[in-house]
Amino acid sequence: MATIRYKKLRPGKLIAYLDVYSYTGEGNSKRNYEFLMIYVDKDYLEASSHIS
């Protein structure tokens, strides 16, 4: 399972990353992060949450 998340860099700036969970054969899970090098403004996230 993968989720796109955002990390705050400085006021008003964020970077997107994938938060990936992998399940092993023994029932354990492993968590990895992969930064996408996509930078967004906080205003962008607020505006996109209002789109239907």
Please characterize this protein's 3D structure:
The chain is mainly beta and 52 residues long. The protein has one domain. The chain is 13% helix and 63% strand. It has 1 helix and 3 strands. It has one helix at 42-48, and strands at 2-10, 13-23, 29-41. A 3-stranded antiparallel β-sheet has the order 1-2-3. The longest helix is centred in the last third of the chain and has 7 residues, at 42-48. The model has no long low-confidence stretch (mean pLDDT 84).
Q: How would you state the average pLDDT, rounded? A: 84
**How are helices and strands ordered from N to C?**
EEEH
Largest sheet: 3 strands, antiparallel
Provide the helix percentage: 10-25%
Query: DSSP helix count?
Result: 1
Distance between the termini: 25 Å
Structural domain count: 1
Tell how many strands the DSSP assignment holds.
Answer: 3
Radius of gyration: 14 Å
- The order of strands across the largest sheet is 1-2-3
Features:
three-stranded antiparallel sheet, mainly beta, 1 helix
Task: Produce the secondary structure layout.
Elements: E1 2-10, E2 13-23, E3 29-41, H1 42-48
Antiparallel strand pairs: 1-2, 2-3
Summarize this entry quickly.
With 52 residues, this protein is mostly beta strands.
